[in-house]
Amino acid sequence: MKGFSFGEEVAPSIVALEVGAICPEETALHLKEANGGALCFADGLIRFADGSLGFVPDFLLGDDPEEVKRGLKESLRRLLEQRFEHLLFAHGQPLIGGGKEALAAFLEDG
Predict the structure, then answer these.
(1) 8 near 18, Cβ under 8 Å?
(2) Which tens digit of pLDDT belongs to each residue from 46-71?
(3) Angle, nearest 10°, between helix axes 65-79 and 99-109?
(4) How is residue 20 annotated by DSSP?
(5) Which of 13, 39, 42, 109 is 20 to 30 A off residue 53, Cα-Cα?
């Protein structure tokens, strides 16, 4: 298995971006050429059945879930600097179109 660094292209047109709040290795993948771009999330951000964005339950965020959520929000705000239209999740249905706006609104509300 080969490791990678944040900011590195891990496959053609796919860049690893630092999230890091849950653990130092927490990564989002930026698919730069996916019809306007897409961000792929593992465990930091999820999409609920009603379509809303959120965080996993507190018991999955360690000993200080509020601090982890603050760190996630800070990281997610940095990701808004990327070009993307879609959000893909390990947990929840993808958000095709309007992803950047939905993420910005989630961060504004929180």
Answers:
(1) no
(2) 999 999 999 999 998 989 999 999 99
(3) 140
(4) -
(5) 13
* Phi, psi dihedrals of residue 11, rounded to the nearest 5°: -155, 165
Query: CB count, 10 Å around CB of 38?
Result: 23
pTM above 0.85, yes or no: yes
Strand 86-89, strand 38-41: pairing: parallel
d(CA 107, CA 14) in angstroms, rounded, equals 24
Report CA Rg, the chain. Answer: 13
Cα–Cα distance measured from residue 98 to residue 74, given in angstroms and rounded to the nearest whole number: 20
> 86-105, pLDDT tens digit by residue?
999 998 899 999 999 999 99
- Which residues in 21-101 belong to E strands, given as ranges? 27-31, 38-41, 46-47, 53-54, 86-89
Measured at the alpha carbon of residue 38, what is the angle toward residues 109 and 6, in degrees to the nearest 5?
90
| C-alpha span between 45 and 107 (Å, rounded) | 11
Q: What single-letter amino acid sits at 8? A: E
